[in-house]
Amino acid sequence: MIDRRHMLSMTTPGLLGLSLLGLSLFAAPRSAGAQGTDKAVSFVKATGDRLVAVVNGPGSASSKRAAMSQIINNDVDVDGIAKFCLGRFWRQATPEQQKQYLTLFHEVLVTSITSKLGEYQGVKFIIGRSKPQDEAAVVSTTVERPNNAPTAVDWIIADPSSSPKIIDVVAEGTSLRLTQRQDYGSYLTRNNNDINALIAAMKNQVSQSG
């Protein structure tokens, strides 16, 4: 099984949804840095506002899942993260395996977030500094939940000046996409580098969460 972590949501289940959820509770301070970092902060806050509207608004579980999926697909570079997490095995996969894997990666991410929507009550988000990092921008935040210690979370935003996308979350100094890449690599090594075995495990993960 691959249930120890899953990309942005497995180390702390639903971390992506949990963290972005509280962004509208605080006014985002403007960065003193470059224009791209300012836009990255505004982007993260806007994404949080949309997530809050879905979580707190009316609608069935299926309609909220559809709305959440749309937000994730619009604001997160899911395909890029998925390819990164598969590492060298992406090039070894057949076109059909790549297609199945990308589809399942989307489903597992959305499922892991939407299954935890009821646990996000009381979340608070404090947005701190932002800074450029190579071609990306980093927005530092502190996530606070009732009965939980505060968590330092950095959001890595690609192409912040024009078409920003979330490409990674660094929680307490740990890159979640890098951790997931290591987990996928270990899983495949234990299963004779069989990508179909990983695909089957991801299908099972989705079906168990449904």
Describe this structure in words.
With 210 residues, the protein is of the alpha+beta class. The chain has a single domain (15-209), classed as Tgt2/MlaC (Nuclear Transport Factor 2, Chain: A). It contains 8 helices and 5 strands, in the order ααααααβββββαα. It has helices spanning 15-21, 35-56, 61-75, 78-86, 89-92, 95-114, 176-190, 195-209; strands at residues 124-133, 136-144, 151-158, 165-171, 174-175. Strands 1-2-3-4-5 form a 5-stranded antiparallel sheet. It is globular, with a radius of gyration of 17 Å. Residues 1-34 have low confidence and may be disordered.
Which helices and strands appear, and what pairs or packs with what?
Layout: H1 15-21, H2 35-56, H3 61-75, H4 78-86, H5 89-92, H6 95-114, E1 124-133, E2 136-144, E3 151-158, E4 165-171, E5 174-175, H7 176-190, H8 195-209
Antiparallel strand pairs: 1-2, 2-3, 3-4, 4-5
Helix pairs in contact: 1-2, 2-3, 3-6, 4-6, 4-7, 6-8
